[in-house]
Amino acid sequence: RLIDGWVLRLGVSAPEAFRFSFGRQGLGDFLAGEIKVGSTPRHELIGHYIHVDDGKFVTRGAIPSDLESIEATRRRLEDRQIPQGENASLDKKYEGVLLWLAGGSGGSKDVLNHIAKTKDYWKQKKVYPITALWCSDLMDQAGAFLERIEQGAFELVRTPGIDLDRRIEQDARAIGRAVWRDIARSAAAAACSDTLHDSRMDAGAGAMRQAFDVLAAVKETKLHVVGEGVGAILLHRLLRDFGPNDFAQISTVSLIMPASTVNEYEDMRRWLAPWCRGPNVIVASESTAKRFRYGRYRGSLLDLAQMSFVENPPMRSAQSAKAGASRRQRALEADPGSDLIGRHSGEKLKDRFGEKNIDLIEISLPGGADRIASLRDVSAGREALNAMEKIVLGDKATGGAPNVPTAAEPKREDQVRASARPSLPTALIGAPKN
Length: 434
Hints:
- The chain has helices at about 20, 25-30, 65-80, 110-125, 135-155, 160-190, 205-215, 230-240, 245-250, 260-270, 285-290, 300-310, 320-325, 325-335, 345-355, 375-380, 380-395, 425; strands spanning about 50-55, 55, 95-100, 125-135, 220-230, 250-255, 280-285, 360-365.
- The protein is of the alpha/beta class.
- The longest helix has 30 residues, at about 160-190.
- The chain is globular and about 60 Å long.
């Protein structure tokens, strides 16, 4: 008679595993290998991410996070030690922390893969990177709804053009406004502090505020904060609740293709003025901005957000239509302060704010006239990383960022399918289309 014997041994959950797999020793060396999208080993990420949902830490699931793990990161940074065998040429200390508020670089899997691909690049520069995922699930789900709306609109209109654009904008309004309100609520919940706690928020909210307080307390270390895409909305909420001591800990603030309104940008600029330069704004050049598209919609998803998602959508006056005004100009008629700045090129932003009132870096992508279906090429690509290195390191910047792979895009309009179109977080940071 034969008997099979099985033994199950549970592994250490991610937040508690920090001390066992920090860096490339032990388990890290044994399992290290090529990082693939959707299958990033957890040990590659420990200490480099914060996961928040509805304002609270996500303590279960594939990518759990809690305040204790962030405290462990702080202790490691204050020890000024880089693990043995990792970046051995350095003098065993980090000079800065880069807190990256994700919000436009794809779904959760893509963000995690980006962390794994870029963390060693930053650590070689003596900068310790931490990425915050804070509304990924909401964005993934909303992207699927919008794909179906766009497909349904095309089945009715059949021909790409202004009529199809208007139909998509109309059909997307209900779900889009709900998503936009949820993004704002998630940002408010993640950023609220104990002293400013909203009684309507669930217990445990304010996770990003708690995380920031811990990272800002790291001694003799500069803190650099980035709001990418809709991450800029969370950054605005965080800065709004800051006190003087909080601002004093920040060295630089940057926005990459931000989903911030004109009013929010001007708020951040005013708040930061006494403490540091910024915010720095990284956007596409005019030639690159004109190439962005979202499926059959002749514009980016942020253009769709501007026309459908915001609470006070722009009105198209008969006078503007007769004068042949661009969609951008018509959008500004309703409420100039609600215009989303990430949809504009650097040239347009200089005209809007004045060259002295905005610190701009423009990104131009090669490829001629080919359409760009995913703004990940700008917000999380090599050019954006090199731009951030220049902001963070100044004269010490050397360039040489890794080439982060991006999704393939369809080449012709009639090849666009739901499975090929970017999800909401990938494209929610667009450029204006006339």
